[in-house]
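Here is the promised in-class demo. Please do not try to memorize the tokens; focus on the logic of going from shape to residues.
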């Protein structure tokens, strides 16, 4: 593939050796460059032979030596961009298949792209990777990757994903180990499908791939009310979640004896279903799957406690009545945390919001919608609402039901203050404008 050079960094090896904007990069060390992954891997080497077509049409072979790992200094246009590859599975638990109609288009994108896994930590299934592309993963030593395993039994995995290519997982994971590629594993658990004995077999099999297999996360299936014509699934009960946690603890103890790591960790949501306390920070061994909801609550609580401990002696919050809406999972924990570590002088009501938009089986704060929050809080007798930013998209302007933050504020009779999704931010927001209060 050809890649037009749109910018050359000042002082870079590329500029010093005569590359300019408008030139076209054709190959590095005789290898075709498909995308940014190829470019970064190949250009990181010390000795480079670049095949270039100059802006005037001349063919040029440029040989250069630079320190290994130092960027070459080239930027490219759209030809180098990684357009996400879509999923080819029909998983029985797919959350996107359970989305309500008429939401914004980005919410329906099913990506399953190993490049996004490498760059952003997205979980992938490897079912849409042909042999040629898999060989590229090995050659580029793409590590670490994040793999949606669900089950190592080929028949169970095929049943869950409705894709015969799902049976190819273990041979590929073994090749990752042989080539020194590390990976983290996700196991989305569905009651009666891949828990129990199947889960134990999955954990035992994955551990044979250690240390290439770095960790495994146990995540309960997320279900909305929009499941017509989909595989009949149900949420975990408290008792079933306890059974999963018992299996988890059993294998954690075995793995600790064998390698000094727990290896497998339950997601926060599984702990919430079981009503368990949040483990200490050391339990999570550096939070290898924090983006997968494993240890987020502990990280939040640790920062909240640190903010409490760092507050000056005798500090008082600005006196007011605050309402904090949140998902039903975290609500009882949030009440305890604020009662124990919140700043004195503020009256806080934590209100668990029932998710009518997706269905009451969806209990996390990040999937609450603006209209559900408004409908259940508009009659509250408070001075202000403290709303976590996780309820909005990254741009900070829209809820999942496309209600804007400005519209949301106009629909409520009290001010709405936003708080970043961290324990430190919550503590500071609870304090309020204490300088103004003291004057």
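The designed amino acids, position by position:
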């Amino acid at each position: 593939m050809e890649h037009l050079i749109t910018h050359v960094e000042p002082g870079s090896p590329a500029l010093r050796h005569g590359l300019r904007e408008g030139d076209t990069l054709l190959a590095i060390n005789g290898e075709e460059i498909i995308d940014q992954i190829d470019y970064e891997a190949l250009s990181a080497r010390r000795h480079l032979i670049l095949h270039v077509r100059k802006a005037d049409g001349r063919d040029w072979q440029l040989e250069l030596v630079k320190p290994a790992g130092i960027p070459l200094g080239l930027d490219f246009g759209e030809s180098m961009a990684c357009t996400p590859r879509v999923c080819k599975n029909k998983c029985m638990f797919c959350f996107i298949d359970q989305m309500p109609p008429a939401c914004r288009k980005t919410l329906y994108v099913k990506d399953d792209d190993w490049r996004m896994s490498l760059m952003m930590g997205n979980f992938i299934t490897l079912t849409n990777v042909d042999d040629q592309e898999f060989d590229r993963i090995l050659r580029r030593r793409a590590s670490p990757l994040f793999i949606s395993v669900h089950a190592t039994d080929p028949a169970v995995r095929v049943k869950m994903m409705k894709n015969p290519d799902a049976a190819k997982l273990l041979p590929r994971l073994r090749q990752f180990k042989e080539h020194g590629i590390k990976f983290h594993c996700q196991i989305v658990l569905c009651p009666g499908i891949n828990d129990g004995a199947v889960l134990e077999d999955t954990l035992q099999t994955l551990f044979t791939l250690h240390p290439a297999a770095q960790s495994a996360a146990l995540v309960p299936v997320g279900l909305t009310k929009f499941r017509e014509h989909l595989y009949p699934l149900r949420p975990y009960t408290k008792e079933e979640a306890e059974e999963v946690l018992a299996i988890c603890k059993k294998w954690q103890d075995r793995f600790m004896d064998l390698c000094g790591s727990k290896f497998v960790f339950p997601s926060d949501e599984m702990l919430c279903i079981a009503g368990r306390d949040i483990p200490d920070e050391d339990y999570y061994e550096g939070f290898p799957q924090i983006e997968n909801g494993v240890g987020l609550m502990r990280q939040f609580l640790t920062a909240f406690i640190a903010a409490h401990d760092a507050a000056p002696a005798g500090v008082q919050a600005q006196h007011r009545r605050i309402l904090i809406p949140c998902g039903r999972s975290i609500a009882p924990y949030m009440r305890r945390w604020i009662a124990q570590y919140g700043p004195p002088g503020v009256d806080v009501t934590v209100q668990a919001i029932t998710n009518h938009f997706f269905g009451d089986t969806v209990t996390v704060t990040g999937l609450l919608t603006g209209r559900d929050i408004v409908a259940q809080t508009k009659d509250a007798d408070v001075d202000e609402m403290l709303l976590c930013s996780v309820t909005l998209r990254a741009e900070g302007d829209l809820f999942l039901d496309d209600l804007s933050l400005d519209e949301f504020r106009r629909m409520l009779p009290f001010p709405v203050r936003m708080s970043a999704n961290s324990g430190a931010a919550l503590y500071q927001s609870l304090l309020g404008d204490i300088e103004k209060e003291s004057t």
